[in-house]
Amino acid sequence: MTDVDTRVPPASGRLDGLPGYGRGRAGQGQAFRHRLGSNEAPEGPSPAVVEAAMAALSGGNRYPDLRGEALAEALARRHGVGADMVAVAAGSIVLLDQIVRAWCDPGDEIVVPWRSYEAYPIIAGLAGARLVEVPLDNEHRADPAAICNAVGAGCRVAILCNPNNPTGTALDADELDALIAALPAHVLVVLDEAYADYADDAGTVAVSPARRLTRHGNLVILRTFSKAWGLAGLRAGYCLADPRIVNALHAVAPPFPLPAPVVAAALAALEAPEAVEARAQNNASQRGRMASGLCALGFPVAQSRANFLWLAVGGQAAALTAHFRDAGIAVRCFADEGVRITTGNDADTAAVLAAAAAWREIQERT
Question: Average pLDDT over the chain, rounded to whole?
Answer without folding.
Answer: 94
